[in-house]
Specification:
single chain; 326 residues; D-Maltodextrin-Binding Protein, domain 2; Alpha-Beta Plaits; 7-stranded mixed sheet; 5-stranded mixed sheet; 15 strands; 29% strand; binds adenosine-5'-triphosphate; binds 1-O-pyrophosphono-5-O-phosphono-alpha-D-ribofuranose; binds magnesium ion; ATP-binding; ATP_PRibTrfase_CS; magnesium; ATP phosphoribosyltransferase activity
Length: 326
């Protein structure tokens, strides 16, 4: 639909759901779900031409790949696992700071001599000789597993597809080892499994992802500018502090030098006269060093505040995506 709505796919359940709604709310994008909790469609309050669809995290990855959804929030693990050509199908716009999970290779703790991927070759050979069968890996990350094992030159194995409770597979005898996600490590420990020293396949977190295969007409691009504009403005504001001060009545404050030194901007220009108000925007980490330099140079009434949104003429998120859409 060249002039249809922009389809925004949002997690409908699980660990990503609450964090995703909070993320949109911070960006001033209020999700309005349809009539009941079972209505899986909604809107963005005050933003026309956007249709919100509530889907599972893995379905969001699929719909971004096929172009059924334009924008979505999902885990990078699911993108890398389900999309054969992630680079050509989607653009990962920004990591969101939640949904952290690491995809790992884990083996029984009882295998004390097995510490690294290279040790698995020996295990596999022994299994073959003693029991006449291949090393079994339980996982739902079939593609990530194949790629990682190939990179490590381990070829003599068989994948047992697991639909859940993967960590239980070795104890129940349906596999020898597993590939799964872990966050705190509690589930691995409870199942007496350990991560191989070089067994980290991917460190994942939730991302804002755009589809490159969806049809991007005029109305979708317009909605995209609004949505990404607010998201970028919130992100910029979160990483920035606003510092206000009065220019000293005498002495010479080298404002250009100080701002360059601390990577700060003067969004409203140079103050025009002594005693005039200075407004600086600087990276959060630079705040106190910048304040010290201002005070040392005679600035008075220095105050620091957080800002909610910082809109600029440029928007790196949109520019990057439009460049890729051509
Ligand atoms: N500790 C965790 N356990 C599971 N998923 C996590 C964890 N931490 C972050 N995540 C992220 O959440 C995603 C899974 O989300 P969720 O379980 O809601 O959806 P799903 O996998 O599509 O559904 P289902 O689990 O019912 O198959 C993971 O792929 C990962 O990106
Ligand atoms: O390292 P931990 O903090 O213990 O977390 C990791 C576990 O959490 C998830 O399972 P979940 O409970 O979501 O069930 P699921 O497999 O059905 O998604 C994941 O699949 C792991 O099993
Ligand atoms: Mg889950």
């Amino acid at each position: 639909m060249p002039n249809g709505p922009l389809v925004l796919a949002v997690p409908s359940k699980g660990r990503l759901q609450e964090n995703a709604s909070a993320f949109f709310a911070r960006a001033g994008l209020k999700l309005a779900q349809g009539a009941g909790a079972r209505d899986y469609r909604g809107k963005l309050v005050g933003v026309p031409d956007v249709e919100v669809r509530y889907l599972s995290a893995s379905e969001i990855a699929n719909q971004l790949a096929s172009g059924t959804a334009h924008l979505g929030v999902t885990g990078e693990d699911l993108i890398r696992e389900s999309l054969p050509d992630a680079r050509g199908q989607v653009e990962l716009l920004t990591p969101l700071g939640f949904g952290q999970a690491t995809v790992v290779v884990a083996v029984p703790q009882a295998w004390i001599d097995v510490r690294a991927m290279t040790d698995l070759d020996e295990v596999a050979a022994e299994l073959r000789i003693r029991h006449g069968r291949r090393l079994r890996i339980a996982t739902k990350y079939v593609n990530l597993t194949r790629r990682f094992f190939a990179e490590h030159g381990v070829a003599d194995y068989r994948i047992v597809e697991s639909l859940g409770a993967t960590e239980g597979a070795p104890a129940s005898g349906s596999s020898e080892i597993i590939v799964d996600i872990t966050t705190t490590g509690a589930t691995l420990a409870a199942n007496a499994l350990k991560i191989l020293d070089d067994g980290i396949i991917l460190r994942s977190e939730a991302n804002l992802v755009a589809s490159l295969t969806a049809s991007w007409g005029q109305s979708q691009k317009k909605a995209l500018r609004t949505v990404l504009g607010r998201i970028a403005a919130e992100e910029r504001a979160r990483l920035t502090r606003e510092i206000r001060a009065a220019m000293p009545q005498d002495g010479n404050l080298d404002l250009a030098g100080i701002s360059a030194l601390h990577d700060a901007q003067l969004p409203y220009g140079m103050p025009e006269h002594r005693g005039a108000e200075i407004v600086l925007h600087c990276p959060v980490d630079a705040t106190f060093d910048l304040v010290d330099d201002l005070v040392k140079s005679g600035a008075s009434a220095v105050s620091v505040r957080r800002i909610d949104y910082a809109f600029g003429a440029d928007n790196p998120l949109i520019d990057r995506l439009l460049a890729r859409l051509g």
